[in-house]
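It is worth pausing here to work through a concrete case rather than discussing structure prediction in the abstract. The textbook approach is simple: state the sequence, then state the predicted structure, then interpret. We follow exactly that order.
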Amino acid sequence: MDIRWKQRFSNFKKAAKQLTEFIEKDSLNKFEVQGLIQCFEYTFELAWKTMKDYLEQEGFDVKSPRKTIQTAFQIQLISDGHAWIDALEKRNLMARTYDEERAMEAEELIRKNIIKLFRNFA
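Step two, the predicted structure:
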């Protein structure tokens, strides 16, 4: 039996807990915001790779994050496929550019929307 997805899921839950700790702080300095964004990025990475490992074990052929999310939504592993795709696009954008204004937008998005996705997935 393949337990890889279970191990990855365990790591995802730890990362999501760490992200929650960031969010529970009322205000973050610019370095903490960078840490929050990085924490989001690796938590998201663990989430989609957990989905991918699980789906592959179930016999699905998924290679990309987008295809993984679409398939996970189709089989009702996740409930809000559009929000997950949006999180994927935001992650890709955050990984490529960095400035303070964009960081503040990212922090707000993570606090208001993305953490809910992770909580529902956990």
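Step three, interpretation. The two ends are 22 Å apart (CA to CA). The CA atoms of residues 11 and 46 lie 7 Å apart.
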